[in-house]
Amino acid sequence: METLFAKTKDRMEKCLDSLDRDFQTIRAGRANPKILNNITVEYYGTPTPLNQLAGISVPEPRLLTIQPYDASILRDIEKAINKADIGINPQNDGKVIRLTFPQLTEEHRKTLVKDVAKRSEEAKVAIRNVRRDSMDDLKKMKKNNEITEDDQKDGEKKLQDITDKYIKQVDEMAKKKEDEVLSI
To answer: Any idea of the CA torsion for 162, 164, 169, 174, to the nearest 10 degrees?
Structure first.
């Protein structure tokens, strides 16, 4: 039964990781290098992550600079950023690419908060689905006489406790992201 709990925790942890990656793609008005994590650039015929081809820095709160290690790929990086459609136009000065993050309007912030709420609710649903699968496994174990009815009840309570812990973490992550989006 302990392997069931470990498997459940592992799957719920993956739900949190997925939510964290989702939240990283939400622009909060501040320059965040993580917004470039999913961008790949064609480099000598191989799709390569941008962060392996260039130094990315945040010299000001609303400015990202991208300094390629190989100046010949500057145009390719610029094309990849445009293709990724992150909502920011890159400015290329021949040596460095600059991404200037615009100030968010109040309306856009509210839309982003709704998006945060939607994504956190999806994560909660995913966590509850993991719980349901684990509960089904417990029922099968009981049906196959691998555990007693008391063990099943104890297991269900422990699964609920695990689920509550992860749901609380989702709420905390969502609150933190909402605060980040709403801060000016």
So the answer is: 150
